[in-house]
């Protein structure tokens, strides 16, 4: 058995951002997760409070949480070495009038040309997920295995991952939309049971369509600036509630690609595209669950589609709970779903 200061189950944006914060504070951190399985890798890496707020019709209170997450990114990127890419984001086409009203209501800065159904904002940004996950993994112990069970005894959590065990006095559950692991307390099982899976499908290509983010009805297009597809583009993304199937749906992908061609004002042509699917999780109110749940156990769950945007905020929330401080965002307290809380 190997002893750590903290064990984190899950290697997505929430889990690795939390691991990075703890590592930067001098702690020995282990991250237990199957290699390459995080839904955060199947993403465009949007840091987009303005358009995510407008598209989803979020309340002012929810919009403020997304804004807070965006504000934290500058410092977080500097401290961790994640490359945050500042670029304009635009909306083209139907729905622009509704989005403009939402942006105005939530006090985002934007430009709007109603005659052309066109909106642009400088408040959003992006990153390249694969590169960010790699950077956030630096300095932490990666155990590339699936946690089979957990146990709590004498103030210590022990994780059995098949070929060995690891232990720590505190543990963070950041397992996305996965089922509860054997040995988790009922409080955590109940929270995980409230998470709704949402499949997201994206396509990635070596073709460069734009040097900034373009959104519109049925699709978005974003540049890829790192990794094997550097210089290419990503096209996304579906939001299929209740679907856990990781195989991609050819018909949905074709529909999304046609929507992307329409945004570009280009007739559809055959290009080489790699389609991917990831399963995200959403809480009943659409906001993450982040904070302590008792006995040295903490959760960082349910990002919906804002995992990258909210990663620094969720990590800070978890660290505050670990340190016994008041949670910075009470609206993300996981115990808000506990009737006795």
Give structural notes.
- By secondary structure, this protein is of the alpha/beta class.
- The protein has a domain of 172 residues: FAD/NAD(P)-binding domain, CATH 3.50.50.
- Helix content is 29%, strand content 27%.
- The strands form 4 sheets. Strands 6, 7, 8, 15, 16, 17, 18, 19 and 20 form a 9-stranded mixed beta sheet that branches.
- Strand 11 and strand 12 form a beta hairpin.
- Helix 1 packs parallel to helix 5, helix 2 crosses helix 4 and helix 3 packs across helix 8.
- The model has no long low-confidence stretch (mean pLDDT 96).
Question: What's the structural blueprint in terms of helices and strands?
Answer:
Elements: E1 2-3, E2 6-9, H1 13-24, E3 29-32, E4 46-47, H2 49-56, H3 60-80, E5 85-86, E6 89-92, H4 96-105, E7 111-113, E8 118-121, E9 125-126, H5 129-137, E10 141-143, E11 149-153, E12 156-160, E13 165-168, E14 170-173, H6 186-193, E15 196-205, E16 213-216, E17 219-223, E18 233-236, E19 240-241, H7 250-264, E20 274-282, E21 289-294, E22 297-301, H8 307-322
Parallel strand pairs: 1-13, 2-3, 2-14, 3-10, 6-16, 14-22
Antiparallel strand pairs: 4-9, 5-9, 6-8, 7-8, 11-12, 12-13, 15-18, 15-19, 15-20, 16-17, 17-18, 21-22
Helix pairs in contact: 1-5, 1-8, 2-3, 2-4, 3-8
